[in-house]
Design a protein that fits this description.
This protein is 21% helix and 30% strand. By secondary structure, the chain is α/β, with parallel strands linked by helices. The protein folds into 2 domains: 193 residues, FAD/NAD(P)-binding domain (3-Layer(bba) Sandwich), CATH 3.50.50; 122 residues, FAD/NAD(P)-binding domain (3-Layer(bba) Sandwich). β12, α5 and β13 form a beta-alpha-beta unit. It binds flavin-adenine dinucleotide (FAD).
């Protein structure tokens, strides 16, 4: 008997897949949740928060309505708390690679890690694009990616008892140097400058290790990789004195930060203006019915790349998605202050049944 794999059985069935878990993607969960819609969030980063978390977590933000000041990290923590009642699925550390409309109007969505969704609608909250690690741009390095050249640490134990080269001068490079120093056979830290961007305490500890002779530091640039057959055996590094040396190593860890790339979004048949997606301004729908875009990634006359603009867009997109999924159904605008249904969805009381009370507490028809 031959067994064929029923791919549809493996997909997560949901109302909406949100591409990007920055501030706008997170708030999108809230607006959909108020309307009774379930969402799944996907982000290529290992944590939520988009630019706020990745680029400026400790900087104060002053222009979020009713919050005179909070750090970017606090804003993301508050958004996560606000959406908790709606229990979104989080799929982090994976990029949405495919969005395919189906004849039945739903979408097949797939990620770089093989997670698959069967979604009623897709909302792209991709900001300035998918954050990708800056890679070692030397001949042949891609052949070793994930084997002996790494841009993130999936399993720290795989670096124990190994000779390592760690490249970078920020927190990630320093944190992993300090974490692995007692477990690796040897570590050489390579950074193009003698100044480090990491936390002062980490820089101090790293310099003390160099002083004690437990860690080698080379101020220099990686020129090429050294291979024996298919195996990576070392790196050629030109130091500040102009001399190029070969450093024997088993594994290379590169922490040169992340840069945004529009990436797969460009291949989904959407109308793009430079690196943004064209949308209308009443639904924030793209040229493909059922695919919407909110936040920094969208483009319309007068667009301002501000978090509060993205929040407004998320509210309108949620109503449009509801209309798309339940055509002909009357959707009432309700207030969280007075609607028992919304309060029930928020888990703060109210005993309204979902459909019977859809209009309770309503002020206007949307
Ligand atoms: P982002 O925050 O960019 O998040 C998008 C997410 O989508 C990213 O995490 C990315 O990895 C993910 N993604 C993209 N493509 C894919 C894919 N294919 N698969 C999976 N994931 C994907 N705005 C203000 O309003 N006030 C301020 O004071 C302010 N200060 C700022 C200071 C700095 C230094 C910077 C850089 C920006 C500032 N901004 C400020 C702008 C603000 O951060 C952005 O407007 C906001 O982050 C946009 O949110 P977003 O959710 O649209 O996108």
């Amino acid at each position: 008997m031959s067994l064929s794999l029923d791919r549809s059985k493996l997909a997560i069935v949901t109302d909406v897949v949100i591409v990007g878990a920055g501030p706008c993607g997170l708030f999108q969960v809230f607006e959909l949740g108020l309307l009774g819609l379930k969402s799944e969030l996907v982000d290529s980063l290992a944590q939520v928060g988009g630019q706020c978390t990745e680029l400026y977590p400790d900087k104060p933000i002053y222009d979020i309505p009713a919050i005179p000041v909070c750090t970017a990290r606090e804003l993301i923590e508050r958004l996560q708390e606000q959406i908790r009642p709606f229990n979104p699925g989080y799929h982090l550390g994976q990029e949405v690679t495919e969005v395919k409309p189906r004849p039945d109007g739903r979408f097949d969505v797939a990620t770089s890690r093989g997670t698959r969704f069967d979604a009623g609608a897709v909302i792209i909250a991709g900001g300035v694009g998918s954050f990708q690690p800056r890679r070692l741009a030397v001949e042949g390095s891609d052949r070793h990616e994930g084997h002996s050249i790494h841009y993130r640490v999936k399993d720290a134990a795989s670096f124990h008892d190994q000779d390592l080269v760690i490249c970078g001068g920020g927190d990630s490079a320093l944190d992993w140097t300090l974490e692995l120093i007692d477990r690796a056979r040897s570590i050489v830290l390579v950074h193009r400058r003698a100044e480090f961007r990491g936390a002062p305490a980490s820089v101090e500890r790293m310099l003390a290790l160099v002083e004690e002779g437990r860690l080698d530091f080379i101020e220099g640039q990686v020129q090429s990789i050294v291979e024996q057959g298919e195996k990576l055996t070392g790196l050629k590094v030109t130091a500040r004195d102009g001399v190029t040396r070969t450093i024997a190593t088993d594994q290379v860890l590169v922490f040169w930060g992340l840069s945004p790339k529009l990436g797969p979004i460009a291949e989904w048949g959407l109308t793009l203006h430079r690196r943004t997606i064209a949308v209308d301004t009443h639904r924030f729908q793209t040229n493909i019915p059922g695919i919407y875009a909110v936040g920094d990634i969208n483009d319309y006359p007068g667009k301002k790349k501000l978090i509060l603009s993205g929040f407004h867009e998320a509210a309108l997109a949620a109503f449009a998605v509801k209309e798309h999924l339940r055509p002909g159904e009357k959707i009432h605008l309700q207030y969280t202050t007075t609607s028992p249904l919304l309060q029930k969805r928020l888990g703060v009381g109210g005993d309204a049944g979902d459909s019977a009370a859809e209009g309770a507490g309503a002020r206007h028809s949307a």
